[in-house]
Structures are given as structure tokens and as C-alpha cells.
Amino acid sequence: MPWIAETGTLGREDVLDLIDRTIAAAGERWGASPRRVLLLPPDITRMHSGSGWITAEFYQRLTRAGAEVHVIPTLGQHEPHTRDQNRTMFGDIPESRIHAHDWRKTVRHVGTIDAETVREITDGKADWELPIWLNAAVVDTEWDWIINVGHVVPHEVLGFANHNKNYFIGIGGQPTICASHFAAAMCGIENNLGTLVTPVRQLFNLAEERFLSHLPDCYVQLVMKRNEQGVLIHSGYYAGDGLDTYLEAARQSARENITVLEEPLQKVVCLMQGDEFFSTWVANKAVYRTRMAVADGGELLILAPGLQRFGEQPEVEQIIRRYGYRGTEPVLAAYQQDPILRRFAHAAAHLIHGSSEGRFTIRYAPGQLTREAIESIGYQYADLDEMLQKYPVDELEEGFQQLDGESFFFIPTPSIGLWATRAKLGNRLEAMVGVDPI
């Protein structure tokens, strides 16, 4: 059972009290006066979750208690934060205590899940081993406490985000990230989304049990929803060191963050916030989280004022520019021929996940990319200024809208949920309570 499980409308004072309770619970288990503590929060693309200021509150409390506290944002393969982004995300935490994860330079090998196990768990869809590479500072340094902070929402690889995703993707190495993402793509993004324990999640659970069970770590799992005024609020706080901490948070997220539609949507308009989403790599959450809702022949319009690039590394930028988001079959054909694409297999998975497979139109209105650039990767283009004038996002609420005779469905923060038809979801929500997490 989780150490703490609180639900309801949780204001800032409530969360501060829960942070104090979490520190007290950790002290009861690992000793009340930790010397060295590591905090593993998400990166700036999850800033809306409040994970940044919550991490800062943990830092301040533990530092005042005499601990030496360090922070590693779980970047995965995303670009490191700038100093200004760290300040925006984490407030007054000193820059010297925030360490950038590098998925190629700061990692070491800690173990491997063999190919036979991967094949069995993925029902034959992936037939390669899963090497586990993690940030060396996490596994080689003697930490008295490790606290993972994160937002549990539907996710394209793991069914729901966070928990040990912080380790195996957030501070994972290139071999782990590439092998796991490509396995998820082979299992099917629409099979993964909103599933409590996907095959890759099951592999990560096994890896945690085998290779990380000695760590003095716990998870702080946040759930959010929109209140009646349309404002994002914390509605769940779960803390603990067991898998149930994730499972209970994910079940709540399923109830509060999945919008079930009886009929598919002909037009969806999404806003990707300009201070969080700078590449299609992350802004394509608009594609992932709505693809099970958009009708065949429909349109997804993505308003992305911060968009300035495609990938999070130069190699991935080049891969996206070369192949574009054109569907599974072309990507798999390229994967067989191109050793660079095989080396960056997570990019192949991303290209698959970001395609509508020809079912519907994906149209981007970017802040800093040209029509030529957008159309070169297989998407359609719209002028951002014109679209913001046509769709006044500050005046729109989530849901069905009528403007100037046009009907559309507006989603102001696609990254916090999943929108799907009942037919696409099948019985996964009803079956969730009975899922075997092993």
C-alpha cells in the first residue's frame, strides 16, 4: 500500500502538508537525518504539473534539516535545461545542485533483460534484449534517500507516465531508451495509451526489481484535473516505495484524465504551450493523446507558438527531416536499410507514433518554423497568427465549440490527458481494477 494516498481538491497548503508527511514517512523507514538526498523530478515539459515547485519545497525542507540535496531533472534524451529554465522550473534551488542528465555521456550499464523475456512479455512483437543503462550518479553514489516526483497521466509508451519511467527513460541511456521505445511502437501506440500495465511497463517493473531493489527510493505521484472553472488543480497525491503507489495514481488518472467520446471528432484544435513545447518530439503529444478520438478524414490542428525544431538531438532532427511522419510501413522499410535509424530506434518509434497512418490530417501552426519545413515532414501548415485570431485560445474552454459557423473540439493542454472513442478504448477502463501488475 502507498504510504500516503490523498484525493480531492488539493490546494498548495494541502500539498505542502503532504510533502511534510512524505518526509516524515521516509524518515521512519530510512532514518530521520539523511546526509545525502537525490531528487528526480520531470523536465520543463511537465512544468504545468507543479512538479518543479514541489521539488523545490522538498529541497528547502531537507536542506534546512541538514541534508546535502541534489537534483537531476529526468530529461531522457531531451535537451538540457538552460539556467533560466531551471530557475523557472525549480525556483531558488542553486544551479550548482541541479545536474544535467546526458543519455550518452553520464550513464553506465547496470544489467540486461534478455531477448527471450522481452519476446515473451511483448507477445513476440519485440525480439531483442533490453539493456539497462542509467545515470551513473544515481547508481554509483551512496544516497540515503532518493525521491522521484512526477505527474501520472496517460502515456504513449507506458500506458501512464511516471513511476519507474523516471529511471529507465528519464535518466536512462541511449540503448535503453531506443530499445524500449521501439518495442512500444511494435506493440502499438493505441494499445498502450490508457493501459495500466503495458508490455514495456512490465519490462521496467522487472528491471526495477532485478537491478534497483537496493535503492532507498520512493515515488511522489501527482494526479491533476480541471475544476469547474477549467483550471488545472492537484486532485491526487500518492507517496510510497511500492508498485501500488503507481497503480492507485494511474487508476485515478484513468478516471479523471481520459475523456470517453461516443462518436469520433471531425475537427480537434489543440494548444501546445509556448514555454514548454519547442520541438515536434514533445509537441506531438497533441497527436498521441487525440488520435483515438479523431474521425477518419478529420483534422487535427496544433497551435504551437514555441515550435522551433523537430528533434531533441541533431541526429534525430536529421532523421525526422529525412523521413518525416509518413506511417508505419515506410518507417519500418527505412529501419531495415538505414543503420543510423537503427542506432536511434527511438526516433523510428517517434515517427510511427506521430503519424495518423493516413486516417486524418495533421496541421501545424508553428511559431518559428516555415511552411516548407512543416510540409517537408508530411504535415500540413497553418499560419499561427491567423489561427490565433480565428481561435482565441484564452477565451475558449475545453470541449465542443462553435465559432463563426464552424464546429470543433478544443483541448488547451493535450499532454494532461487522453481523448478516445468508446470503440477505440474497448474495455480497458472497466478491466483496470482487475489488472495483474506483475
Structural topology:
Elements: E1 4-10, H1 12-30, E2 36-40, H2 51-64, E3 68-71, H3 83-90, E4 107-113, H4 115-121, E5 130-135, H5 136-140, E6 145-151, E7 154-155, E8 159-160, H6 165-170, H7 174-187, H8 189-192, H9 199-211, E9 217-226, E10 232-240, H10 243-257, E11 258-261, E12 265-271, H11 280-283, H12 285-290, E13 294-304, H13 314-323, H14 328-337, H15 339-343, H16 345-353, E14 361-366, H17 371-376, E15 380-381, H18 384-390, E16 399-403, E17 406-411, E18 418-421, H19 422-425, H20 428-431
Parallel strand pairs: 2-3, 2-6, 6-9, 11-18, 12-13, 12-17, 13-14, 14-15
Antiparallel strand pairs: 1-10, 4-5, 7-8, 9-10, 16-17
Helix pairs in contact: 1-2, 7-16, 14-16
Can I get a quick summary?
The chain has 20 helices and 18 strands.
How would you explain this protein's 3D organization?
- The protein is an alpha/beta fold.
- It has two domains: 4-257, 3-Layer(aba) Sandwich (Rossmann fold), CATH 3.40.50.11440; 262-425, LarA, C-terminal domain (2-enoyl-CoA Hydratase, Chain A, domain 1, Alpha-Beta Complex), CATH 3.90.226.
- The chain has helices at residues 12-30, 51-64, 83-90, 115-121, 136-140, 165-170, 174-187, 189-192, 199-211, 243-257, 280-283, 285-290, 314-323, 328-337, 339-343, 345-353, 371-376, 384-390, 422-425, 428-431, and strands at residues 4-10, 36-40, 68-71, 107-113, 130-135, 145-151, 154-155, 159-160, 217-226, 232-240, 258-261, 265-271, 294-304, 361-366, 380-381, 399-403, 406-411, 418-421.
- The strands form five sheets. The protein has a six-stranded mixed sheet, sandwiched between helices. Strands 15-14-13-12-17-16 form a six-stranded mixed sheet.
- Helix 1 (12-30) crosses helix 2 (51-64) and helix 7 runs parallel beside helix 16 (345-353).
- It is globular.
- The model is unreliable at 434-438 (pLDDT under 50).
